[in-house]
């Protein structure tokens, strides 16, 4: 059996009510719920939340909310893997055993049902503990620099200053959409960004962090442009 777990904590500070704020016509969390349902991959699609308003919206769009997440797993410092572990163990306490789990973020409006399915196939074929979405950096990370106390530039890797861009190794980062994994991997709290995981590489135009009001505006504009050009399936 397979389940999708969508962590959706209340109390967002930078974007109030972020998980249920309207994004391109729907509550933000609705995009993740509908993508999971439309993929046909899951026996259950479950939202883990501590917030009754989020729970109500989640149910409206077809997800289940079989429990309210405990407060000790709902602070600013609890990661998604412990939250997913809690959901798996709750289901097990109800007599349900799951082999494969997908933890999908509530703020992932660019996630596509087809990508969920393809990533699952990659996960099973790779025999990895996890498969997660990733994309490459737009610029070489070896050329990154920081600002000093007196507002000067200081490279993190100054030895790479004269290396040609094409000779630098390409780097990738977590795209923040979802993590496929075995139930055992989540329960053991295995780290995702490690050699136990197989990254599913997304094009950069499908990746957008949404952490600030400016991010939100950019994400809506990008979503509208991608759907208008046929590069993103409407749900």
From TrEMBL:
GO molecular function: N-acylneuraminate cytidylyltransferase activity
EC top class named in words: transferase
Keyword Signal: no
Entries under InterPro entries matching the protein: CMP-NeuNAc_synthase (IPR050793), Cytidylyl_trans (IPR003329), Nucleotide-diphossugar_trans (IPR029044), PseF (IPR020039)
Pfam hit, one: CTP_transf_3
The organism's place on the tree of life at top rank: Bacteria
EC number: 2.7.7.43
Keywords: Nucleotidyltransferase, Transferase
Official protein name in the record: N-Acetylneuraminate cytidylyltransferase
């Amino acid at each position: 059996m397979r389940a999708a777990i969508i962590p959706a904590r209340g109390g967002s500070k930078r974007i109030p009510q972020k998980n249920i704020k309207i994004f391109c016509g729907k509550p933000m969390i609705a995009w993740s719920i509908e993508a999971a349902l439309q993929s046909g991959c899951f026996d259950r699609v479950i939202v883990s939340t501590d917030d009754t308003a989020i729970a109500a919206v989640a149910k409206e769009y077809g997800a289940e909310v079989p429990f309210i997440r405990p407060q000790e797993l709902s602070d600013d410092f609890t990661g998604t893997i412990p939250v997913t572990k809690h959901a798996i163990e709750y289901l097990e306490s109800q007599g349900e055993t799951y082999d494969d789990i997908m933890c999908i973020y509530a703020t992932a409006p660019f996630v596509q049902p087809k990508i969920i399915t393809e990533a699952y196939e990659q996960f099973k074929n790779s025999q990895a503990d996890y498969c997660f979405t990733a994309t490459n950096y737009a610029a070489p990370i070896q050329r990154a620099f920081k600002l000093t106390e007196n507002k000067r530039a200081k490279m993190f890797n100054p030895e790479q200053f004269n290396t040609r861009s094409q000779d630098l190794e390409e780097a990738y980062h977590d795209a923040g959409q979802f993590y496929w994994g075995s139930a055992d991997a989540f329960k053991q709290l295995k780290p995702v960004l490690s050699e136990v995981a197989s990254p599913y590489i997304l094009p950069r135009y499908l990746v957008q962090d949404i952490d600030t009001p400016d991010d939100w505006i950019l994400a809506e504009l990008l979503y509208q442009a991608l759907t208008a050009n046929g590069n993103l399936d409407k749900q």
